[in-house]
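Hi W., the iron/sulfur cluster complex you wanted:
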Amino acid sequence: MLLFTPVETENLRMKNRLVRSATAESMATKEGFVTDEMVELYKKLAEGGAGTVITGYMFVSEEGRASYKMTGISEDRHVDGLKKLVSTVKKADRSVVFVAQLAHAGRQTFISPVAPSAVKDPFTGIEPREMTGEDIERVIDDFVNAALRAEKAGFDAVQLHAAHGYLLSEFISPHTNRRKDEYGRERAKILLDIFEGIRGKSRIPVMIKMNACDFVPGGLEVGEAVRIAKLLDDIGFEAIEVSGGMYESIYHQRYNVVSQKVGKSGEAYFRDYAFRIKEAVNIPVMVVGGVRSLDVAESLLEKVEFVSMSRPLIRDPFLPRKMMAGEADRSDCKSCNLCLTAIFEGKPLGCYSKN
Ligand SMILES: Cc1cc2nc3c(=O)[nH]c(=O)nc-3n(C[C@H](O)[C@H](O)[C@H](O)COP(=O)(O)O)c2cc1C
Ligand code: SF4
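Structure:
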């Protein structure tokens, strides 16, 4: 099985091709500190067999918070807790590549919504404040400083969250970024600036999770996503995880685009987008979204380097180990999204399905 064979990116070696995609824990203290509950979750994930484990989104500044139980990487005082998280994972399995996802919520938050342009989000009813040039410079610094904290804590890499309609996703989307300045003329500029800012101070590998399509009229489409992906490849990003959708997409698709319900025929619903991007870039690509079975994962690996899973590992963090041992050939996650509802209600991450 290709899924459980080693693979390398430019700077990292993974023991296998299965990635735990970033999944919000909703377990931090109100100041964003790591809790024992969270350490326990990551211990299980590390023992569970995935070669790469990406944390849930962490806020790079107070302004960038999506919710009150989100984990923080915005201040130096967050580093000690993150160090404990990393050392627990490494103690469980030294070979796990542990990645910190860095995020700013942009307009998709009730706390302090800002965005490239003041485009109202019909889902939340919020009209964000349009960011000034100084705001953008500050956010770039916030991402750079967060990456340095991740390195200090011992993470192997960081992943910029540029998917699902959060701030960096809003920048690359023509729907939410209508700026006339340099950050609107080249909507990927903020990603390149963050990358260069990190590279000026650190060698930590930088991955990205990005939308290939927003599923809103006037939003990001795959052709433009391919163009952006090439820029990211050229500048030296380590890997691209391909996703799609934002809160607003629900009005145009009548379902949650990011975390869709999946039947057997609907597995790996972003596969064609990921393949389009892979055809254009040299760096490794990760497919996420509705991968549930071993045979589908294997078939995806004919074209891309990594397969990512979120809900299957909420359901059972040990699924990769079971698949490897021949004890399971698919996830029994029902894709009911009760886990998603729960974290929006401030409950801790877990499988809330009754069956
Ligand atoms: C409870 C929950 C929390 C999530 N949190 C994040 C997150 O913090 N960052 C992120 O990039 N995606 C997040 N996602 C999206 C998943 O990483 C993934 O892209 C999506 O669920 C589709 O993959 P799946 O079918 O394997 O679940 C979350 C999804 C769920 C269900
Ligand atoms: S709550 Fe539903 S979607 Fe979430 S892990 Fe459990 S079965 Fe899967």
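The two ends are 30 Å apart (CA to CA).

W.
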